[in-house]
Design brief:
The complex is a heterodimer. Chain A is an all-alpha fold. Chain A has a single domain, classed as MetI-like fold, CATH 1.10.3720. Helices cover 66% and strands 0% of the residues of chain A. Chain A has twelve helices and no strands. In chain A, helix 3 crosses helix 12 and helix 4 packs antiparallel against helix 5. Chain A starts with 11 loop residues before the first helix and ends in a 5-residue tail after the last helix. Chain B is an alpha/beta fold. Chain B has a domain of 232 residues: Rossmann fold (3-Layer(aba) Sandwich). In chain B, the strands form two sheets. Chain B has a seven-stranded mixed β-sheet, sandwiched between helices. In chain B, strands 2-1-4-5 form a four-stranded antiparallel β-sheet. In chain B, strand 4 and strand 5 form a beta hairpin. In chain B, helix 5 packs across helix 6 and helix 6 crosses helix 7. Chain B starts with a helix and ends in a 13-residue tail after the last strand. The chains are: A mainly alpha, B alpha/beta. Chains A and B meet through helix 1, helix 9 and helix 10 of A and helix 1, helix 4, helix 5, helix 7 and helix 8 of B. The complex binds adenosine-5'-diphosphate, iron/sulfur cluster and magnesium ion.
């Protein structure tokens, strides 16, 4: 039973004694949730593996000349399929052999990263913005707007990303990286809208939002200051995992011949290599392995980040 | 333990004499008709004398519609969370509101904070119905009525530092403190609630439950409000910390001249802090009176049952005492019993209870007497039953 008369007088001293703060003597040391998540991430080997791989891929995309001095477009028909991989020739043009035009598979794979990375990041940025805004409005305002936006999301969910992308890209005779970005973003925003809507609905009911409303905070403040910062973790996780999916869909579209044209890209190279799979499997397997590793790295990174942000797993 | 009991009694007596001065029953509402917004704000910021009614709740109703269908929602019923409640809050007092979980206490709190819109009824704050205010007048109400939440783990934004949390009221109401002053004010508030002012840059998850609740209280105090509505402020805390937080709240009440509405699901928690207590059951007020009236002379069977369940430390008193065990579940507020809402669990229920809704009034048999049983009770057969000291 509660017995306040016997309890010690509440004061700074007893308050401090109530539970010593972690962090010791340094009183002003602040640790945000993000910093805690980072501490968690640092001790996760999967995070490091995926992070190192992703940094490598990003470097390949940004400055391919760091990795090779060979021109990926340079064709020497003397090497036509004959140049088998020389697994010992690290970083040499013939490391992974040559393709049908006698181009260095190694150089093409390095240069092919750029298209995948640009498309992956731009589509993810686009779907996060579009899906995020749609999900935020649906979740926050609810009612008829939510009903309409949720049904719209459902309808788009019914269209497979690949199919939608194919149909839209058919309409373009000249396809660049940006056409592919547009096509993938048009049919790829729904998971982000869903996760954002769910997160906003959860946060909207949180007591700290009610507290802000009780103080007289307006919609903008509540959304930007209270709700959005608390939805970022799940959105970032879903976006990271989706990024991997966009990279592989881009490759699939290029493979099918309706993605990128006349660009050095993993998908285009895999597509070109399919006819010679039996004679020269390396021409297909090398870009395909890089593609899988990139996709896998993003998915693993997303998983690791999710675990780090989930306080229940701590 | 026995000694503290005595202490408690001593406190009760002083409270009873104080409260006896307060008029019984529902006071007259003197409405203020403000022609302009300026007048309304001025009236809302005016002082109210100690012991005068500051908040007058009249027939407050909140029904949450139950809907069916996805695209075309149609109403199929309503959760009658609050169903016609009237009470007064006097300046400087603490009114406890007690009732089982789900009886509508939090909904009352949200209605008083105008966080939910009332289905019907009025809430007069200094003579103006706050359920109908908007614009600057509503902002003035928000400055003057603040809330402390039940769960200290969800009531603080985990992405904001303590300084930002306690300083946010000043950002929303910039007129309350000039920009340069805010940091100092926040530090003062931290000090007032017994936290180290240097904790400014820390995040809520670095604090214990009791410390978080202190942060929530500091935020509630920032705008220098007159009324603080505390929705089960200690229910989520360890028993050892509950008393510290309650002591702090009492200290702050004296220091800042606050009026409290203190919600709890347990009569023993509000006893220490409240001057008057209202007992709620299924969206209605069952009984309301001073501490002494409710704890020592309850006349409503529901209050008596609740009190009989309060643990008694004295073994002798425990022996002679009859424990009233309520059978059955609380009925759904979507489909409450006819007549008296308590009748499905009341051992005294008769036909009349199913037919007539008992009004919250001083029972006839006690009216005019100076017995402590002469306080408002919503029961056709209100009578005393000494459950506590038998
Ligand atoms: N937003 C809401 N929508 C529908 N029903 C609600 C809502 N809020 C509360 N209720 C219902 O109203 C009743 C009273 O709830 P509440 O005021 O939270 O009770 P208490 O705080 O006393 O536990 C409950 O039956 C609850 O389910
Ligand atoms: S009115 Fe009837 S049912 Fe209700 S509390 Fe009184 S005796 Fe019990
Ligand atoms: Mg509640």
């Amino acid at each position: 039973m509660l017995n306040p008369t016997q309890a010690p007088e509440a004061g700074p001293v007893s308050a401090a004694a109530e539970a010593p703060l972690p962090g010791g003597s340094e009183i002003t040391k602040a640790r945000s949730l993000g910093q805690d998540a980072w501490r968690e991430l640092r001790s996760n080997p999967i995070f490091w593996v995926s992070a190192v791989l992703l940094v490598l891929f990003l470097l390949m995309a940004a400055v391919p000349s760091l990795f090779t001095s060979t021109d990926p477009g340079h064709a020497d028909l003397r090497n036509h399929y004959l140049g088998k991989p020389e697994w010992g020739h690290f970083f040499q043009p013939d490391w992974f052999g040559y393709n049908g035009q006698g181009q260095s598979v190694y150089a093409r794979t390095i240069y092919g990263a750029r298209a995948s990375v640009i498309i992956g990041f731009c589509v993810t940025l686009g779907v996060t913005l579009v899906g995020g805004v749609i999900g935020m409005f649906a979740g926050y305002f609810g009612g008829l707007l939510d009903t309409l936006l949720s049904r719209l999301t459902d309808i788009f969910f019914g269209i497979p990303l690949l199919l939608g992308g194919m149909v839209l890209l058919q309409a373009f005779t000249h396809r660049t990286i940006w056409t592919v970005v547009l096509a993938l973003a048009t049919f790829g925003w729904m998971p982000l809208a869903r996760v954002m809507r769910g997160a906003v609905i959860t946060q909207k009911q949180a007591d700290f939002v009610t507290a802000a409303r009780a103080l007289g905070a307006g919609t903008t403040r509540i959304l930007l200051r209270h709700i959005l910062p608390n939805t970022l973790a799940p959105v970032i996780v879903v976006a990271t995992i989706a990024l991997g999916g966009f990279v592989s869909t881009e490759a699939t579209l290029s493979y099918l011949g309706i993605g990128l044209q006349s660009t050095v890209s993993w998908g285009v190279d895999i597509s070109d290599a399919q006819n010679v799979l039996r004679d020269a499997p390396h021409v297909l397997l090398v870009p395909a392995s890089f593609l899988s590793l990139t996709v896998l790295s993003f998915i693993l990174l997303g998983d690791a980040v999710r675990d780090a942000f989930d306080p229940k797993l701590r | 333990m026995a000694e503290t009991e005595k202490d408690d009694k001593a406190v009760d007596v002083t409270k009873a004499t104080e409260a006896a001065a307060a008029p019984h029953g529902i006071t007259e509402v003197t409405t203020v008709d403000a022609a302009t917004e300026d007048e309304a704000v001025a009236a809302l910021d005016a002082e109210v004398g100690s012991g005068e009614p500051i908040l007058q709740v009249r027939n407050l109703v909140k029904h949450f519609p139950l809907t069916q269908g996805i695209l075309f929602k149609k109403q199929v019923g309503a959760v009658k969370a609050v169903d016609g409640i009237s009470f007064d809050l006097y300046q400087g007092e603490t009114l406890g509101i007690v009732g089982e979980s789900g009886c509508g206490k939090s909904t009352v709190a949200k209605l008083l904070m105008t966080l939910e819109s009332a289905t019907a009824g009025e809430v007069f704050y200094k003579g103006q119905d706050i359920t109908k205010l908007s614009g600057r007048a509503l902002r003035a109400v928000r400055r003057n009525i603040q809330m402390v939440f039940q769960d200290p783990y969800t009531s603080l934004n985990p992405r904001m530092t303590v300084g930002d949390i306690i300083g946010e009221p000043y950002e929303i109401h910039p007129e309350a403190a000039p920009k340069g002053d805010r940091r100092r004010k926040v530090q003062e508030l931290l000090d007032v609630v017994g936290l180290n002012p240097e904790y400014l840059n820390r995040y809520p998850h670095q604090f214990s439950g009791g410390q978080r609740q202190r942060i929530g209280i500091a935020r509630g105090l920032a705008l220098n409000p007159e009324i603080i509505i505390c929705d089960e402020p200690v229910s989520a805390l360890d028993v050892s910390v509950q008393a510290q937080v309650i002591n702090l709240m009492e200290k702050l009440q004296d220091e800042f001249n606050l009026s409290y509405i203190f919600i709890a699901h347990d009569l023993s928690i509000v006893r220490h802090i409240s001057d008057r207590v209202g007992v709620m059951y299924l969206g209605k007020m069952a009984e309301i009176g001073t501490d002494a009236e409710i704890y020592d002379h309850p006349t409503h069977p529901y209050t008596q049952a609740l009190l009989s369940a309060v643990p008694v430390p004295d073994p002798e008193a425990r022996e002679g005492r009859e424990r009233i065990i309520l059978t059955g579940d609380v009925p759904s507020p979507a489909n409450p019993p006819s007549g008296c809402r308590f009748r499905t669990r009341c051992w005294k229920a008769e036909d009349k209870c199913a037919k007539e809704v008992p009004l919250l009034a001083i029972p006839e048999r006690f009216a005019g007497t100076d017995s402590l049983a002469a306080h408002e009770s919503a029961c056709h057969f209100a009578e005393e039953k000494d459950v506590v000291h038998a």
